[in-house]
Amino acid sequence: MNIGKKIAQLRKEKGATQEQLASFFGVSVAAVSKWETESSLPDITLLPLIAEFFELSIDALLDYDLSNEKYRMLKDHNNKYKCTFLNQ
After folding, report:
1. b vs e for 23-62, b when ≥16 Cβ sit within 10 Å of the residue's Cβ?
2. CB neighbours of 12 closer than 8 A, spacing ≥ 6?
3. Fewest C-beta in 10 Å: which of 5, 18, 78, 85?
4. What 8-state DSSP symbol labels residue 86?
């Protein structure tokens, strides 16, 4: 699920309106509507606030689960690019 659909689902489960979300996040109602219809994405700086509003982690908001095979493979692939000089 992408973040727009996730926000819409969580908002409805919480019984909140798009207006309430917009007010809480300091954005327009149109912005929230665009997120939910996948016309645009929330600014990355809002992710902690969005996660806090819905009482979940940013990982959960983004449906990021390291136990998922897809993410494990990506993590394993990226480990070969790890900066070893940071450990010196």
Report:
1. eebebeeebbbbbbeeeeebeeebeeebbebbeeeeeebe
2. none
3. 85
4. G
- Kindly report the backbone phi and psi dihedral angles of residue 56, in degrees, each rounded to the nearest multiple of 5, phi listed first: -145, 170
Alpha-carbon separation of residue 11 from 15, 35, 40, 54, 62 (angstroms): 6, 12, 17, 8, 15
CA atoms of 52 and 21, how far apart (whole Å): 12
Cβ contact 3:41 at 8 Å: yes
In the prediction, which pLDDT does 82 show? 59
DSSP characters for 15-48?
T--HHHHHHHHTS-HHHHHHHHTTSS---GGGHH
> Please, which residues have CB within 8 angstroms of residue 64's CB and are 6 or more apart in sequence?
58, 71
In the chain, the amino acid numbered 20 is: Q
